[in-house]
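Input structure tokens:
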């Protein structure tokens, strides 16, 4: 009986969408059926992310799709972005998590709070899938509560020194760049929390795979450790 109604639009959602939004959704739906469904079960069982899909996602414009074309992005509206994520979520939460972290938690902060140099350096690479990004905020002791943030960024001549750890970080073990949030003043002073764009090959930066997960098994989930990570003043996102 379930098969009889599969794909039926009971609420006539299609009538609320523009032609472009429907085209985007249908394109992603076809890609998911042809390229994700055949590999996602094995990835889930093996607890690995299917990295071979990343260049395809970049080529289709699925990474940061609602950001401007001048940075290599698709320039779509937010409805289309939501439809893209809905279709990827249909296959697996790990796939959607990869894309939404890349687009919303890495690319969007760089676009919104970063310098033009940071945008030009990272957004085209992240949009194409040539680079992978992660977002470091959640901590072992305080979760995603910035008011209890322990990770620190201390000002030194010419830059900053970052120390701390974050947990449950999607894309962490395969990331080329991390958007790291750290408190620069007194503990609990949320006004002092600033964002930094940190290449993951910076000395003192390390990522460890998260063990013991009961869900999101096809997602790359990591612990990030920052031990005296030195970055220049150009790592700070000035609008953060």
């Amino acid at each position: 009986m379930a098969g009889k109604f599969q794909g039926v639009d009971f609420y006539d959602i299609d009538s609320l969408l523009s032609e472009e939004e429907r085209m985007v959704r249908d394109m992603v739906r076809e890609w998911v059926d042809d390229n994700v469904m055949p590999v996602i079960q094995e990835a889930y069982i093996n607890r690995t992310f299917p990295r071979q899909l990343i260049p395809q996602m970049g080529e289709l414009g699925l990474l940061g799709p609602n950001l401007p074309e001048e940075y290599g992005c698709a320039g779509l509206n937010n409805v289309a972005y939501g439809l893209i994520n809905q279709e990827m979520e249909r296959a697996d939460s790990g796939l959607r998590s990869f894309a939404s972290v890349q687009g919303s938690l890495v690319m969007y902060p760089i676009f919104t709070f970063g310098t033009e140099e940071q945008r030009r350096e990272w957004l085209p690479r992240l949009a194409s899938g040539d680079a992978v990004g992660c977002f470091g905020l959640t901590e072992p002791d305080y979760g995603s509560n910035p008011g209890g943030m322990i990770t620190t960024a201390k000002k030194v001549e010419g830059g900053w020194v970052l120390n701390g750890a974050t947990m449950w970080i999607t894309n962490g073990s395969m990331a080329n760049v991390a958007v790291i949030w750290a408190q620069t003043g007194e503990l609990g002073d949320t006004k002092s929390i600033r964002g930094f764009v940190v290449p993951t090959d910076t000395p003192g930066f390390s990522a460890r795979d998260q063990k013991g997960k009961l869900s999101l098994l096809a997602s790359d989930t990591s612990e990030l450790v920052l031990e005296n990570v030195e970055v220049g003043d150009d790592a700070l996102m000035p609008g953060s």
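The chain has a mean pLDDT of 94. The beta strands are 133-136, 152-156, 159-170, 177-183, 193-199, 205-209, 221-232.
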